[in-house]
């Protein structure tokens, strides 16, 4: 690639495009004739154009259906008619952009209808860019901008070309939409260059606004009209009403329910009563728990004003609605709901409803959804490894990247190790996969999708006739073999399990999984299967997805304090007995895989809960209550011997002294299969500065023969393109120091580990030499009074790690070492008052070069006296002045 980031256009691409342009120019009167059909244009011009850009348009590589690079006519339903974006271009299974094809007789430059059609597809699917072309014209659109029925053809258009400009602009065309451009990041850079444009409103943010508005109006109306409901029943009523409407509306656009079924209800009075009749019919059809009125004893009797339901339903249909729900992926819906669950309904005086942010969410700075590629990576290296035995199982791409994570099928010398045969479906049915903090269900969706793909591939390649006869698969409209609803239900009930402390989160997880069961189904396919099977379409997930506190068992109430807890406190704590809730699983030894993104911080915990954690998890507790550390510990109790865990969690446990006991526990209990470091702290969760790693461990103690696979990416989404540096090291090189000071070392070359090993054998850790003038656990509230103007040298200074640069102290964007501050409480330790000191950053951000960051200070010349915050080391250099 040239230094300016532009891709060199291959000679074959140039030749192919020249030939296509010349052919069209020669006979364009014929091609622009209305009699010339779109299908002809696709075959003669559009397919060859994108083939020349490196895409496998015709699937010449013979990839399975779910792994094709280009999907033709991604099926969906618009306004009761079967329509589709003509092409979906993918890397692995991830859509990158849609292409909508038209015949050349149309004027794409001025006609707004084709552009609106494309943008509605792509915006609902959360694709940043997509293409509209009839070959005579080529238009690229920024599809993050919310589409409107009155938009002009050039609204959100980022580029427009006529065919005679293709050769002049081939650098741009190839550098933006070729397969190479997508793999090497040029496509993403094009997306970023247009980010922040006026009017940008991505589908998840817009739909979140809508459902939050529905919650607000429903909460106020239900609270006012149904005074008998307590706060928990009110939250439940609002959540169930929204979930049921969303489910049925999505089912309509997928062709499973009659289109405009809900819209027909708003023409008349008593809308909610008639809506409940639809809910009741849905229960007869689906039997899913979502519409279970035996457990839900109050929804049918609710009083809700017509206007409230009218406004909700009206906003879900054209022209009010820009959404195309058939392409709204379950992962996008999960992201929306994850944010939605960050707020809760409260009751104020007079039984008035008020929606507020949850205190723990407010203190954590928001809710952060795990990107799909992170979920997929963890699933492949946990569930995939259990099934295929090779970690990165079921190759989901044919990228030639070369730098993939080292295969578990090869030893450190590169020799291929024996590989166990992949599991068959009957064996897979025994696997139990758990997310103990499932939230809106993103990890369970990822695991379920992996299982669906694996089974579909296996049934299509083994004993096909038998599998068809037994109803495990059926043949789709294009001749492809698809999993039956019966088989999807069986897999879900056998393999997928989750727990969350939030009852609303549990219901959302169930909703997401049920929608996943119905993917690729139509009313016709579903009715045929149900008639054949004599069963309802969906499973009841109450035995799989449960509500409770994964970290606190019912023994919490039995320690002499049972009478001290009122009902509201017990509801909040929500103690959970794993053995009672999943008896058969623990009878068989536990779960095979525990995956997820557990909570990181411990906000809003009572003193009783903190004390319980200190007692129940004393083997890993060392002064701080970090929930992610406790989840790492708890997973050991939930896993079978040799079970596997896959979490994404903060990087702090690797080196932070507060996690020494956790590291010791990991070494004695787990063997780390591999760890993936994400260097750019800003790239994993939007608007969050958090250093994270992906941790894959097996439930067997580490030994001298344990090999750890270390991997690293610069940005989180580099995982998608396989831009992973990696190496393998023995356990004793990965972990250095004794049990009191052990740390984990992340590097991606053996030469670096050789240096680390020499350091471990011949050097002293800086923390062994460090002075004790740190602020300790009270660093955040030790200093109360801050002064904005200069004072004399008689006051204390607090120096932060980020103030320490190479050879000098500096102000940072957030904090200054020159603040004039006074102690707000009795100091735990004496400040530094005299001497020359070397001060270092104890934790250095990954994005900085790998080097020691240190400076020298002299007291009292530089300061009269000072404290250092916890992420520093202070070494006395000389007890007197120079």
Can you put this structure into words, describing what you see?
With 882 residues, the chain is of the alpha+beta class. The strands form 10 sheets. A 9-stranded mixed beta sheet has the order 15-14-11-16-17-19-18-20-21, sandwiched between helices. The chain has a 6-stranded mixed beta sheet with strand order 1-4-5-6-7-8. A 3-stranded antiparallel beta sheet has the order 30-29-32. The longest helix has 23 residues, at 203-225. The radius of gyration is 30 Å and the shape is globular.
Number of helices: 30
Span between termini? 54 Å
Rg, rounded, reads 30 Å
Overall geometric form:
globular
The average pLDDT score comes to 81
Low-confidence stretches: 75-82, 390-417, 776-794
Main beta-sheet annotation: 9 strands, mixed
State which percent range the strand residues make up. 15-25%
**Total beta strands:** 32
Oligomer: single chain
Helical percentage: 25-40%
* Protein structure class: alpha+beta
Strand order, main sheet: write it out. Answer: 15-14-11-16-17-19-18-20-21
Question: Could you give a quick summary of the protein structure above?
Answer:
The protein is of the alpha+beta class. It is built from 30 helices and 32 strands.
């Amino acid at each position: 690639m040239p230094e300016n980031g532009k891709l060199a256009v291959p000679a074959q691409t140039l030749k192919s495009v020249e030939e296509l342009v010349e052919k069209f120019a020669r006979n364009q009167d014929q091609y622009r004739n209305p009699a010339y059909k779109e299908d002809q244009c696709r075959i003669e011009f559009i397919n060859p154009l994108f083939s020349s850009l490196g895409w496998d348009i015709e699937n010449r590589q013979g990839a399975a259906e779910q792994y094709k690079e280009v999907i033709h006519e991604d099926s969906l339903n618009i306004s009761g008619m079967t329509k589709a974006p003509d092409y979906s271009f993918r890397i692995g299974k991830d859509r990158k952009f849609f292409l909508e094809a038209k015949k050349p007789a149309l004027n794409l430059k001025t006609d707004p209808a084709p552009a609106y059609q494309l943008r509605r597809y792509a915006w609902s699917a959360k694709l940043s860019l997509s293409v509209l072309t009839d070959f005579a014209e080529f238009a690229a659109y920024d599809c993050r901008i919310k589409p409107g029925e009155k938009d002009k053809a050039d609204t959100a258009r980022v580029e427009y070309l006529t065919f005679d400009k293709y050769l002049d602009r081939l650098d741009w065309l190839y550098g933006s939409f070729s397969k190479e451009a997508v793999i090497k990041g040029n496509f993403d850079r094009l997306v970023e260059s247009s980010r922040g444009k006026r009017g940008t409103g991505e589908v998840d943010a817009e739909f979140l606004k809508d459902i939050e508005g529905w919650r607000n109006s429903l909460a106020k109306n239900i609270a006012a009209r149904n005074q008998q409901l307590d706060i928990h029943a009110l939250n439940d009523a609002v959540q169930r009403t929204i979930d049921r409407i969303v489910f049925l509306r999505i089912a309509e656009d997928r062709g499973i329910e009659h289109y405009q079924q809900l819209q027909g209800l708003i023409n008349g009075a008593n809308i909610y009563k008639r809506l409940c009749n639809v809910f009741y019919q849905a229960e007869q059809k689906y039997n899913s728990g979502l519409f279970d009125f035996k457990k839900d004893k109050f929804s049918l009797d609710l009083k809700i004003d017509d206007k409230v339901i009218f406004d909700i339903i009206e906003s879900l249909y054209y022209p009010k609605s820009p959404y195309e729900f058939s392409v709204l992926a379950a992962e996008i819906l999960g992201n929306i709901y994850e944010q939605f669950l960050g707020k809760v309904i409260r009751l104020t005086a007079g039984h008035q409803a008020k929606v507020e942010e949850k205190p723990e969410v407010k203190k954590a700075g928001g809710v952060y959804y795990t990107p799909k590629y992170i979920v997929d990576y963890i699933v492949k290296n946990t569930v995939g490894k259990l099934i295929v035995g090779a970690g990165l199982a079921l190759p989901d791409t044919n990228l030639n990247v070369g730098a993939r994570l080292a295969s578990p099928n090869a030893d450190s010398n590169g020799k291929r190790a024996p590989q166990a045969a992949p599991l068959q479906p009957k064996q897979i049915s025994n696997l139990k996969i758990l997310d103990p903090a499932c939230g809106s269900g993103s990890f369970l969706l990822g695991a379920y999708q992996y299982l669906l793909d694996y089974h579909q591939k296996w049934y299509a390649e083994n004993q096909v006739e038998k599998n068809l006869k037994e109803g495990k698969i059926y043949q789709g409209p294009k001749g492809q073999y698809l999993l039956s609803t019966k088989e999807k239900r069986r897999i879900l009930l056998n393999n997928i399990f989750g727990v969350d402390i939030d009852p609303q989160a549990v219901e959302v997880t169930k909703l997401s999984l049920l929608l996943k069961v119905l993917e690729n189904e139509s009313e016709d396919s579903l009715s045929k299967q149900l008639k054949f099977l004599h069963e309802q379409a969906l499973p009841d997930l109450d035995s799989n997805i449960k509500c409770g506190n994964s970290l606190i068992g019912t023994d919490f109430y039995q320690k002499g304090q049972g009478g001290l807890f009122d009902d509201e406190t017990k509801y909040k704590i929500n103690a959970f007995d794993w053995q009672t809730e999943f008896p058969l699983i623990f009878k068989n030894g536990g779960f095979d895989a525990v995956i997820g993104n557990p909570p990181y911080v411990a906000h809003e915990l009572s003193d009783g809960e903190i004390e319980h954690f200190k007692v129940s998890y004393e083997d890993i507790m060392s002064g701080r209550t970090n929930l992610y550390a406790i989840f790492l510990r708890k997973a050991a109790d939930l896993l079978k011997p040799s079970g596997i865990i896959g979490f994404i969690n903060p990087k702090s446990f690797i080196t932070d002294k507060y996690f020494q006991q956790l590291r010791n526990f990991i070494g004695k209990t787990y063997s780390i299969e591999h760890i993936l470091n994400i260097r750019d702290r800003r790239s994993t969760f939007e608007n969050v500065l958090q250093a994270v790693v992906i941790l894959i461990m097996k439930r067997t103690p580490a030994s001298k023969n344990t090999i750890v696979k270390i991997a690293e990416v610069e940005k989180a989404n580099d995982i998608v393109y396989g831009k992973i540096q990696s190496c393998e090291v023995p356990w004793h090189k990965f972990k250095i120091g004794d049990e009191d000071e052990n740390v984990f070392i992340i590097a991606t070359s053996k030469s670096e580990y050789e240096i680390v090993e020499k350091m471990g054998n011949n050097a002293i850790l800086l923390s062994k030499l460090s002075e004790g003038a740190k602020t300790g656990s009270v660093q955040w509230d030790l200093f109360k009074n801050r002064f904005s103007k200069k004072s004399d040298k008689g006051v204390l200074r607090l120096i932060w790690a980020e103030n320490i640069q190479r050879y000098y102290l500096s102000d940072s964007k957030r904090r200054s070492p020159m603040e004039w501050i006074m102690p707000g409480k009795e100091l735990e330790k004496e400040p530094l008052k005299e001497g020359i000191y070397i001060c270092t950053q104890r934790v250095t951000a990954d994005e900085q070069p790998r080097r020691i960051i240190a400076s020298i200070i002299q007291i009292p010349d530089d300061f009269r006296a000072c404290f250092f915050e916890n992420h520093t080391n202070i070494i006395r250099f000389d007890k007197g002045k120079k």
